[in-house]
Amino acid sequence: MIPANALLLTDLYELAMLEAYHASDMDDEAVFDFFVRDLPPGYGYLVAAGLAQVLSTLRDAQFSDEELAWAADSGRFGDDFLDYLRGFRFTGSVHAMREGTPFFPDEPVLRVTAPLPQAQLLETRIINLLQYQTLIATKATRCVHAAPDKLLVDFGLRRAHGAEAGLMAARASWLGGFAGSSTVLAAPRFGVPIYGTMAHSFIEAHDDELVAFEHFARARPQSLVLLIDTYDTEGAARRLIGLAERLAEDGIQVQAVRIDSGDLGEHARRVRRILDDGGLGDTNIFASGGLDEHRIAALLADGAPIDGFGIGSKLDTAADTPYLDCAYKLCEYAGEPRRKHSEHKATWPGRKQVVRRYDASGRMRGDRVQREDEPADGEPLLELVMEFGEPVAPTPTLADSREHCAEQLGRLPDALRALDAQAGYPVDFSDRMHALAREADVHIEKQQLKSSGGNGP
User: Fold this and answer.
1) Which of 4, 141, 331, 339 is the most buried (most CB within 10 A)?
2) What CATH number does the domain containing 239 carry?
3) What is the DSSP letter of 130?
4) pLDDT (tens digit, 9 = 90+) per residue, 242-259?
5) CA distances from 76 to 4, 79, 82, 102, 123 (A)
6) Which residues belong to any copy of the Nicotinate/nicotinamide phosphoribosyltransferase domain (predicted)?
7) Are 244 and 210 within 8 A, CB to CB?
């Protein structure tokens, strides 16, 4: 069976171009940039995420026997090309922003330098891996901005668009500052802390709600959270008081109650009073159900006494902005700068560096995109992370990337952290970048004129 992460997990046109490149002996060095054209409405920044998965994909890139057998049986490809695929490996280099780094439109987040067929084939998977985790990590940071002192947990696996998406959402949301995830595999795979409560079905399976609470508490006494909204939220909170006293005698503490439906703010206020009056002032209230950063901010602005939130469907599906206007474009081939002129989609040529500048307080004040060989008046953000098809150093741990993300977000201008950010962040292009763009234009015009048989002025 062909695995889900096989090299055939790509668009057909990548293989079609690859065969044409091979037939034409076009294997000179190419340079591609991954970047985002525009921010989603209300977003002041994006957070780079997914680099670790890109690097492992490039390092392990080769066609399996099963893939090659399918390609041969499909009748779509010539024998010579299939022989070429058998020896395919990625031998190029990658420069990238560190995971957890905020970035802005038109800034290259990742640059691939490799023989043209290698760099081209991996386009689809690179975009696939970077776009999704960037979306989720950024949305997670926005939830953290909305509730900076609250426990935030990813609850979205069951609503994610596939198993890989759910697992990557657990990774990306923790990178973005969440306390953890309900996705169990995220713990052994990435070291993400995992959290869990109970479902309504557990309560419904019992004839008595209180018996259900006690069964669960005695079976799972550590970090005990009880779901109280199956029938009557406030009624369950009242009945819980006596049970909590009995459990306490056996050293079992009800850490929190969870509310998952109805008017979360009003239920939380009523339950808080019931718990406090019953001597459970240390029992927290955890809320879930259709939440995102905007709903969380509204609840807290209204004074809802909620200590933590489970964010699921709207996080893992990036419901308000389910895709980024991102691209992976050729900017150099065979030593010549290349750029695209398409309406509203023009690109910048050449090998670039993004240089970040800070004000006296250490806050970001503006970025410059410049040619790679220009002196950097600030902090260069693109680092060499892969050379000759192998990582140049151990990939930073997810915990390190999470810490880097928190530090970087603390250096953002306040206006960009707003949930309805209107202010833009200054990104300019150096004079030499503009000159290189003109050089690329002249080059392509000359080639087009030559191929059409014209003599020019």
Assistant:
1) 141
2) 3.20.20.70
3) H
4) 999 999 999 999 999 999
5) 21, 10, 10, 42, 20
6) 152-329
7) no
